[in-house]
Amino acid sequence: MGPRVPAVVPVVAVTAALLLGACHHEEPAQGEVRALVAQVPLAGAGFPPAAATARTQLAGLKVEWGRNWETYKRENFGRYWSDETDGIGGRNGCDTRDDVLRRDLKELREGDRNPCVVISGVLHDPYTGKELPYSYRRASQIQTDHVVALGAAWRGGAYAWTPQRRLEYANDLDVLLAVDKQTNYEKSSKTADKWKPPLTTYWCEYARRYTGIKAKYRLSVTPPEKLALQEMLATCPQ
Fold it and tell me: Does residue 124 lie in a domain region?
């Protein structure tokens, strides 16, 4: 799940400072809050894995047909985004979706008072290549996608996890990407053999990330899914 980041105590300390400061009409320095947010990584070390590593990981994954598909429910992974996890991006005081936007958007403008909030930016959608503008005050064409969908993770082994582990998966930034909303609808909970990014030049990175997620969480792959990942990894330069 990645190393536990010792950010819990500073978060509590800042929260306490806010409460005490309210009594004296003072607030912690904005630089202090920004430093707290910035110290928690938004990507795991070496993630996504290199193509050679991904091929090795794929070869080691358990191959079997998905199980318990009929028992899957979205709420099995938590009803809402949560910062209360020890996964990548957890316990930094920011909403998971805002963490994804801060990581994936360019020309980023953050809130003056709250550095977690993304005011505006531009997404270069990895799935289609579209340039998608984002504004906090307008309806967005950007959604947050679980690269290995929650339903697919459930069928690949997450049905046997604890609720906390499923919550961590659902909020792990290594599992998430900001993408085009319509394309995300089309992807839904499909596995790699049933859906590939329309932008073929992204197949290599998609397969690397997808395989890395499967390996990180020890999820199984179906025979067609493994073949599709092998084919996409074959498009990598090395």
Answer: yes
